[in-house]
């Protein structure tokens, strides 16, 4: 009897696993960033877009640079600490930005 209950419990957890899957960088970007950065732009400062040329000009070359800017932004940008956006979520956003806005 115990084995049947255990097997059923394991099956239930495995079946529900997709519900616990990580949220994509694209989804997180839409939730936290897209309002001010639609299509990788910048509604506050047209010279500070998320496009590669602007990121590179500002010394941001990879997802780590994007996350650093999220954690300690300049004037006009919301600061996203690890309570607001976890480190894995921030990494997903950073990777999405680098991959998407060329």
TrEMBL record:
InterPro entries: Cyt_c-like_dom, Cyt_c-like_dom_sf, Cyt_C6. GO terms for molecular function: electron transfer activity; heme binding; iron ion binding. It is found in: Cellular thylakoid lumen. Residues 20-101 form the Cytochrome c domain. SUPFAM superfamilies: Cytochrome c (SSF46626). Its main location: other. One of its GO terms (cellular component) is plasma membrane-derived thylakoid lumen. PROSITE patterns: CYTC. Residues 1-21 form the signal peptide. Keywords: Electron transport, Heme, Iron, Metal-binding, Signal, Thylakoid, Transport. Belongs to the cytochrome c family. PetJ subfamily. This is C-type cytochrome. It comes from Geomesophilobacter sediminis.
